[in-house]
């Protein structure tokens, strides 16, 4: 028995004609093959293998691109992908991140805090009393931008206009000498960090205490 043509086991009919999607010429192909899209000439000479666009929203992992945010410490603009935004926000660098951790994870803010000596702190005895007096004088409101305790959801920070380290470095002074009321000003977290980085002058801060 002949085993060619229609008698062949895999025979599925004669060739069919298709039109090349690139040059529009007609060509023949077997229907048992994948449907023809390009003629043999275009397959060899044309760029018919289209590389998929995997950038931006075409990427399977696209989730909206980078967000425009502000550094939690100094307030400068930063851009981060949503997946890189932690529960505490974002920081422009390690210095600002360390400053934020120092502010929020020391003393009573630390998860392992078990209390401390009454009336004392890293700033020495009397600091808690002077801090409270500064907050009361400033009506628990940031003296630079006007943000209130209610808007912050917590008390403002109390900032030393002349830094504590300036007193510590003087042989005749002690930490407690930095805690006089005219040297203290209530600031929100953002303004406090701006003041720490010199973005709010001491002259401005002193004027706010008058």
UniProtKB/TrEMBL annotation:
Residues 129-193 form the HNH nuclease domain. InterPro entries: HNH, HNH_nuc. It comes from the Archaea. GO terms for cellular component: cytosol. CDD domains: HNHc. GO terms for molecular function: endonuclease activity; hydrolase activity; nucleic acid binding; zinc ion binding. It holds the Pfam family HNH. Keywords: Endonuclease, Hydrolase, Nuclease. This is HNH endonuclease. It comes from Natronocalculus amylovorans.
């Amino acid at each position: 028995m002949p085993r060619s043509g229609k008698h062949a086991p895999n025979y599925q009919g004669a060739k069919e004609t298709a039109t090349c999607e690139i040059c529009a010429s007609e060509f023949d192909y077997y229907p048992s093959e994948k449907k023809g899209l390009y003629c043999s000439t275009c397959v060899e000479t044309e760029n018919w293998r289209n590389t998929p666009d995997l950038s931006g929203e075409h990427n399977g992992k696209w989730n909206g691109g980078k967000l425009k945010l502000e550094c939690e410490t100094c307030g400068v603009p930063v851009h981060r992908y949503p997946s890189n935004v932690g529960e505490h926000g974002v920081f422009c660098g390690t210095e600002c991140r360390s400053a934020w951790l120092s502010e929020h994870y020391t003393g009573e803010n630390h998860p392992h805090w078990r209390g401390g000596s009454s009336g004392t702190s890293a700033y020495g005895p009397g600091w808690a009393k002077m801090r409270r007096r500064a907050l009361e004088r400033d009506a628990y409101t940031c003296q630079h931008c006007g943000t209130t305790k209610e808007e912050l959801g917590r008390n403002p920070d109390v900032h030393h206009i002349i830094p504590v380290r300036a007193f510590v470095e003087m042989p005749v002074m002690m930490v407690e000498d930095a805690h006089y009321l005219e040297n203290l000003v209530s600031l929100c977290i953002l303004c406090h960090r701006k003041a720490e980085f010199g973005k709010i002058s001491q002259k401005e801060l002193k004027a706010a205490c008058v």
